[in-house]
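Box 3.1 — From sequence to structure: Flagellar assembly protein T C-terminal domain-containing protein
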Amino acid sequence: MRKVGSVVLSLYLLITLTLLPAAAQKRKVTVMDFGYGTVKKDVAAIFGTDQDIGKGIADQLITQLLNQGDYRLIERSHLDKIIAEQNLSNSDRADPATAAKIGGVLGVDAIIIGDVTTFGNDDKHTNVSGNGNTGWLGKAAAGGLGVNKSKAVVEITARIIDVNTSEILASVTGRGEAQKKGLSLGGGGSNGWWNGGGGGGGQVDFGSSNFQETIIGQAVKAAVTEVATNLDTKAASLPPPTEKPMPQAPPLDGQVADASSSDIIVNVGSKNGVKVGDTLAIKRVDRVINDPVTGKPLRAIETLVGTLTISSVDPDSAVGKFSGTGAPKVGDHVKRQASN
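Predicted structure (token representation):
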């Protein structure tokens, strides 16, 4: 029994270790509100007022990606807060550089941006009686009876942006269509697209059944589903997340201020970028090479006395433990090591 138990445990560990790298490679992403500037007039014509369809579509895409599980997504409220603080315009939503900057603040590996490129119709209306057709939505005129044949079309593009390089890692598209045929009665009747309120200043809820039962809602869902599926397909082929470049430490040239005990005090601190745990080099100037013509110093010849591991820091000074064969003295130079 012990032997069987050992075999089972070994198999479990092998499977677990095999699956861990795949899980670790899931990209941590967020989804920007999609841009919809090119279809803004179509949106206003359908809903009777401007509606932020880019936010509604982004919300639906987040839900789809969460359900499919190929990406790790951050809480949407964090992104909304930054967008509000940055006061981004509609055109900024699809800008890779802007997206990368926001993604960097959020601490994600990549950010998904996109545009709604089509949000319209291919409506047909046959007037039976009354004063005729009133517009491209196929809306019956007052006192008229008509037959509407409505077709909604929604097209979306989405791109995955590396937040550290602004590189476009992948680009996908999605298209959705939905159709409806029926009668429309004049006297303030329906256009067959949207009867759920939200016009006249209210915001349409893209997650509501009221919206999703309309043909434009069905077309949106189909387009978002195709985009999500295509993004999931790309997930496995994406390169590993790039390492964010480490900021280069500022130059440092301080001096030993006190060496009377084992705690060496130097005259540089947090203002100079010194942190607890830093290892600094203590060097002593042996001689200075001067220009034979001008007499100005050209180069200082230094020898390494030892190293100082910083244990405490304040704005203008730091304290550390010395290690080395020499003995530090007041006035010795304190510099960063080449490896820091």
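Summary of the box: The two ends are 54 Å apart (CA to CA).
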